[in-house]
Structure formats: structure tokens, C-alpha cells
Amino acid sequence: MAHALSTNTAPDRGTSAFAERNGLDVLNRSLRRHWRKALIATACLSAATITILSLLPPKYSANAYLMVESRPNVVNIQDVAPALTLDVEGLASQVEILRSREIASAVAERLHLTTVPGSRDTKMQIAGGAIVDKIEGWLDRLIKGAPLPPEERVITYLLTNESVRPMGRSRVVEIRFTAGSPQLARNVANAFAEAYIDRQVFEKTKASISAKNWVDGEIIRIRQQVESNEHKLEDFRARSGLLENGNRMLLPYGEIADIDRRLTAAQTEYGAIKARADEVQRLQRAGTLSNALPETIGSPALQALREREARLSIERATLMQQYGPDSVRIQRIEGEMQELKAAIRTELSHIADGLNSEAALSSNEVASLKAAEASAKSRLESSSGESVGLLSLQREVAAGRDLLVTLLRRQNELAAQVSLQTADAQLISPAPLPVQPAFPKMLPMSVLAVFISAILSVAFYLWRDLQERLIRSTEELAALVPYPTLGMLPRFQTTRSVDQLAVMTKDRSRFAEAVKNLYIRIAPPDRPLPRSVVVTSALSGEGKTTTAVSMAMLAASLGRNVVLVDFDTRRPSLHHILRLPLGPGVMEYLSGECSSLNEVIQHPMPNLAVVTAGRGSDFNNVVRTELVENLLKGLTQKFDHVIIDTPPSLAVVDPLIVARLADRVIHVVRWADTTRESVKAAVHLFESVDPRRIGAVLAQVDIERHAADGYGDSIVYHKSLNRYYLG
């Protein structure tokens, strides 16, 4: 029955104690118990952290701001150097260009950076620059393999410390660079912006130069062709004998020239109408005007639709950065885009109908003029075939001259564009020289260091308390033992004086009242007196001997006839405390050297008898149950109480022998010293004893520390109760 009670009750109490120890009350007790230590640890950690922060080399951040926008060229030639798109995707592309290795390489070249800028002086102040350099080189070889060339290290350094981001929904881009020097941070941030602008100008100039070179080549080719045609014309005139005025007598010549001019104009107009019609059909299929040519959207309605489409595209791209594709706002934008596409297709359909009609009329006009030209040529050939050849050569020469003039005009435009090219971005705010370091920010980081240090300190002591295995309250003790707890005994100055023990037992001290409470718990007035009481503990030094002597003296002062037995025959101590001879005692009686109890009983005080441990070396007699039982039976017949002081239960088996024969067993546990494992081991030994006959008491309690820890049972030490005690 006792074993069932211990195995079924203890786990439930242990679980309850574990939950209690891991609650907010544990944190509260840790703060109460260790607040001074935690405060000192917080101050030390904070001071160390702030010192380290003050020794770290400062980092400065400089910000430059670019406005990325579409600018018209000085000479508006869209096919040579197209402008930037203004949607979100286009702006994101420009941001990635600013982050590219090409721009970083240009910055390094612009600032003449051949090595990674360092702070060797600062490193030497901290730990020696040479050692730091060796460690950095070793880490680079370990992580990246072979060391990078100096130029690659510079580029990597620039890209690592650069930050580029668009500012909200605007076209402004922030370029931030962080470095150990404020001048370097400012120079690199501005250099990134300038390198980007120079790259744009270079690319647009490169496109213009390429176009100019092509036009120059075409001018040379057309000029040679015109000269060749002029030579052919002169040769033909010389062979045919036709002079400059000779064609006046042939009437069809003027008619053919007029028809030819009209035919060329009609074909040109038809080609333009056809091109516009094809472009309109392409836009109809695409359903968008984002990439429409300017001449295609000459209609005010289409221009309004295109502006609306551009706004919706920018709004959709911006929302896509904040919401998912299933967002309600995104779906609304998609719906408006679909309606807009339908409107665009409808408007383009009307334009296409008109263009098709114009194309049909122009086609008919071209066919009519071709027929008229063929008729005129037929009539001219019948009159003079040589005149027709002359006119053909003249037209080729005139056409070549017109094309040459056009190319020369284009050449002049391109030359002007090459020298006057502008970028699609401007530096609206150069990076100023930073005054305050971006890292470390001493004030906020110091506050954060203090806060984190406080958390770490509290967490450390809380963890240590959670890991602690010592018993600090009757609640924790009750959760470990399968029998009731009998209270607490306060700590007092250890003494071997019986006079002081007698005084502390009789006066109005806390210890005296606690001993009285313990005695009342094991000997209630309404129940029969326990004739034999065993006082034991798991380990030595837990206060069992003091408890046994105090209880015996208290019972004797109450008029009980009490005998105190020192059953700790291996390390006896009662004879020292009570100033009595060691023997004869328990050992002599159990060995048979003393046949009468009167031979071993001593009377140091009124109503108090003592049986010391005695002298002997045969400790096997102590474990002979019949001998021990005879001793206890004889003593219980002569005295009201037999209080037995035993050795530690984990040391020898003697306490278990006596506990099975006694009426009550007091298990003494030392406060804040005995471990939970020791208590569990002792409980396991007493499984064969009825737990209703056992009680646990927490001894040597530091009342001030216990009250400060905030345990529930510390209420008995409330300061308002001090008036009831003396000393």
C-alpha cells in the first residue's frame, strides 16, 4: 500500500511542481533573489558592449538622388536613339544598371581605386593590422578559394557597400554608399550617379555615331551612282544627237513627266496609308497603344486612351510590388485594362476602316496613273524611242540628286546630335559630406545593449534557477514526497551548547515556535501520543540531531517523560551536545554487555533521559531487528516519548530498521542545500514504511532570503508577526 501511494502520488505532485517552477512565479523569485547580481551583470555586459562599440571603426553613409526621366533628343530621331520607358519595369531596369559591375568598374576607374579602401590605423589600434589582414586573407581563401585580383576586390567592395532603391512611386532613385571615410562615402555615391549619367550619354552618342557612319557611307555610294548616271546621260545625248531643247518638239515628254511625278506622289501616299493601316492592325491584335508610333495615334481619342493606358500600367506595376495577383485592387486594375483594350480596339477599328477606304482610293489612283503612263509611253515610243531613254536617264539623275540632298541633310542633323546628346537622367541632389557615422549609432545601440544585457542577465539567472535541484520551499518538498510536510524550522547559529538549545527551545523565538508547531503536528492533543519518534535525513548536516534534541527538550519542558536515543552509533554527537559520557549506551545494550536499561540511561535534565550511542565495533547488532525492537519496547514502557536520532538514511540501513518499528518518522530536509535527487532516493528507501507515519520538515531556513524569494509558505515570516517573537 505504501509503495502504491509513493508511485502514484509523487509523479502528480512533481508535474504540478514542474508547472509551478516554469511559471511567472519562478521569474518573480529569480528577480527577487538575484536582482543585485543581475544588475551588476547588466552593468558589466553593457559597459563591455559599449566599449567594443566605441572601438569599432565608424561607417559613414552618403546618399545621392537621381531623377530618371524621358528627355527628348536635340534632334528628334527616335530610330537612332530611343528614349527610356517610364513604367515601373523600366525604372527597375535602370536600378539594376546602377547595381551592375560595369558601373562599379567605371566608378573605380573614375576615383582611381586600385585597392580596397581600408582602415589599417584603426585595426592596429584594436588588435594589430597585420594580424587582422592575415585573418581576413585566410577567411577569403577558405570561403572563396583562390584570392581575387585587386581590381575584382575593388569592384566587389563597391557593390557590397552600395545600396540603390527607388523612392516610393516617384522616378527618383536613391544611391547610398557606406564607407569608413565620410569623404570616400560621398565621392563614391556621387561617382555612381555620374558614371550612370555618362553611360547613358555614351550609349546614345554611340548610337548616333553608328547612324552617322552609315549615312556617310550611303552618301558616298549615292554620289558615285549620281555621277555615273550623269555620264550615261551625256553619252546618250551625244549618241542620239538630242540637244537640251530637242525634247520640246515631242509633246508626250511633258505628259509623261507630269504623270511620273503624280505617280510617285500617289505611290508614296499609298505606301504611307498602307503602313498606317498595317500598324493599326498590329495595334488591334495587341490591344495596346504602349508601343504605338507617334503618327499612328494622331487622333485625340487615341492619345487620351494611350495616356490612360500608361497610367493604368504604372498603377498596376506599383500595386504588384505591394499585393499579390489575387488582390482586389489588382483585379480592379485588370478589369479596367480589359475595358480599355476593348475601347482601343473599337477606336482602332474605326481608324482602320477609314484607312482601308483611303488605301483603296489611293490604289485606284496609282493604277489609273500607271495606265496613263503606259499609254503615254506607248505613244512616245511610237514617235521617238530615243526620247524615252533620254527622259529615263534624266529621271534617274534627278532622283539620285534628291536622295543625295536628303542624306546630306540627315548627315548634318546627326553631326549636331553627336555633339549635343543628353542623358535621360539628372543628378537632382548630390551626396553631401556625412557628419555623423551611420554605424555605430552610439545612443540607440547603447540603449539596445543595456536592454539586451538586462534580458541576458535575467535569462541566465532564470535558467540557473530552473536548472537548480535544491529544495527551497515546503511546496517543492511536498511535490517530491508521498507523505505530508510538517512545516519549517528557521536557521540559527550552530551550537554544541545544551544551554543555548534549551533557551532557544523555551523562549519566544521563531525557532522555538517552529519546534512547538512541529511537536503539535506529530503529537496532536486529540490523538494518542506517539511513543517512538525517529528523526532522520538523507544526508548528514541537514539538522536532524538539532531537531531531535529540540523536540526532546520541548516535550520535557511540557512535562512529558522523554528519552533521547543516539542511534547514530558510527558518528555519535548527542553526548557532545549534552556533555555526557559516550557510554554505556546503545552499542553496549545491543551487544549484551548491559542487560538492564537503567545501566545505559542517563538523566542530564528534569524529565529528559538520554541513551548515548555507546562504544563498540560490531555494528551488525544495530540491524538485528529483534534486538532493536526489545530496546524500543523497553523504553516505550518507561517513557512517554522515545525520540531517536539516526544516521543519514542514504549512508547506512540503520534508519530504515528503526523507522519500521517507530510510531512516527520525521524526515529532515535542509533548505537550499538538499537536492531533489537526494530526497527522491530517501523516499525510495522508505517505501516499505506506511507514509501516514512519516512527515517531512524543512530545516535551517534563512527566513530573510526565503521571504525575499516570495514563496507561498514565506507568509509565516511576514514582518507584521515580528512583534510576537523575542530575538
What does this structure look like?
Helices cover 60% and strands 10% of the residues. By secondary structure, it is of the alpha/beta class. The protein folds into three domains: 2-56 and 441-467, no CATH class; 226-427, no CATH class; 474-724, P-loop containing nucleotide triphosphate hydrolases (Rossmann fold), CATH 3.40.50.300. It is rod-shaped and about 175 Å long. 30% of the residues are buried.
Give the structural class: alpha/beta
Query: Please, how many domains?
Result: 3
Strand arrangement, major sheet: 5-12-11-6-10-7-9-8
Shape: rod-shaped
Number of strands: 12
Query: What does the main sheet amount to?
Result: 8 strands, mixed
| Percent in strands | 5-15%
Helix content: 55-70%
Using the 3D structure, state the CATH architecture of the largest domain.
Answer: 3-Layer(aba) Sandwich
CATH topology of the largest domain: Rossmann fold
First-last Cα distance: 45 Å
Please write the CATH class name of the largest domain. Answer: Alpha Beta
Mean pLDDT metric:
80
Gist?
By secondary structure, the protein is α/β, with parallel strands linked by helices. The chain contains 23 helices and 12 strands.
Comma- or semicolon-separated keywords:
727 residues, single chain, Rossmann fold, 4-stranded antiparallel beta sheet, alpha/beta, 3 domains, disordered N terminus
Break the fold down into its secondary structure elements and pairings.
Layout: H1 2-21, H2 24-55, E1 60-68, H3 88-98, H4 101-111, H5 120-126, H6 129-144, H7 150-161, E2 162-166, E3 172-179, H8 182-240, H9 251-286, H10 300-320, H11 328-383, H12 385-419, E4 425-429, H13 442-467, H14 474-480, E5 485-490, H15 498-506, H16 510-522, E6 532-537, H17 544-557, E7 562-566, H18 574-577, H19 586-591, E8 601-605, E9 608-611, H20 625-638, E10 641-645, H21 654-661, E11 664-670, H22 676-685, E12 694-701, H23 703-709
Parallel strand pairs: 5-12, 6-10, 6-11, 7-9, 7-10, 11-12
Antiparallel strand pairs: 1-3, 1-4, 2-3, 8-9
